[in-house]
Q: What sequence folds into this?
């Protein structure tokens, strides 16, 4: 997949790695790859994690918090946790159809 910079028009190849090891070595991936890797790490340490998909174009993870008794929003691409309104208030995005699954 190619990405064209809006500022300088440089085109960069943006590979899609579905193997978490390769993603962690290259440190290049999109939200789906990072969500996969983060959910895998959460599950590896015994946390209940699920994917959340915004039908327009973004994926993040929710992790169940026993202490808070609810799902916590976690976005490994943005390095944020428990900021569920990030996309509407921070990005100015209008979410369309959002589903969560594990």
A:
């Amino acid at each position: 997949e190619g990405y064209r910079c809006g500022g300088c028009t440089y085109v960069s190849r943006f590979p899609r790695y579905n193997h978490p090891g390769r993603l962690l070595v290259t440190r290049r991936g999109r939200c789906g790859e990072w969500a996969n890797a983060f959910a895998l790490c959460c599950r590896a340490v015994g946390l209940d994690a699920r994917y959340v998909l915004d039908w327009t174009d973004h994926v993040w993870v929710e992790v169940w918090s026993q202490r808070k008794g609810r799902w916590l929003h976690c976005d490994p691409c943005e390095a944020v946790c428990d900021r569920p309104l990030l996309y509407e208030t921070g990005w100015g995005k209008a979410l369309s159809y959002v589903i969560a699954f594990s």
In short: The beta strands are 2-4, 11-13, 49-54, 58-65, 70-75, 80-81, 98-101.
